[in-house]
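Posted in: Protein Modeling Q&A

I'm a second-year student putting together a small comparison for a lab meeting, and my supervisor asked me to include a predicted structure for Lrp/AsnC family transcriptional regulator, leucine-responsive regulatory protein. I've never done this before, so apologies if this is the wrong subforum. The sequence is pasted below exactly as I got it from our records. If anyone can share the structure token output, I'd also love a short note on what stands out.
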Amino acid sequence: MAHPSSADSGIDLIDRKIIDALRQDARMPIGALSERVGLSKTPCQVRLKRLQERGIIRGFRAVIDAAALGLDYVAFTEVKLLDTREAALAAFRQAVLKIPEVEECHMLAASFDYLLKVRTTDIRRYRIVLGESISNLPHVASTSTFVVMETLREAAS
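Accepted answer (user: helix_wrangler)
Welcome! Here is the predicted structure, written out as tokens:
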């Protein structure tokens, strides 16, 4: 994975090693983390705290098996807006964040405005979310759906 230069982000190689190790296992004890990055515990804890204070490490999460919860239907929904002035974008952003089935929302430079990752129990539930929630978001002109057939790699959320 490409990283910005240290001058851009103000972090060095050891900070990057800490970040990479925690991406692999966020529950890693500080002793194991310090050993992995080649520091003693105290300097490692200081660096970890600094990364958190600066917002580079924003938190630690459990990685959930969505399929085990019955949420294994994933669709990507393209959303085209009628209006892309700032007030319309703000209204859309505020409303889309209230739909629990929307796992991700990205504004794109494309022939449409937003790409949503939507996770539901099945196609019937997706259809309800699309028809009652997504299509009724402020300023929505049209949507297109792409159903995920297989996931090879997914970011931990």
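A couple of things worth pointing out for your meeting: The radius of gyration is 20 Å. The chain has two domains: 6-53, 66-147.
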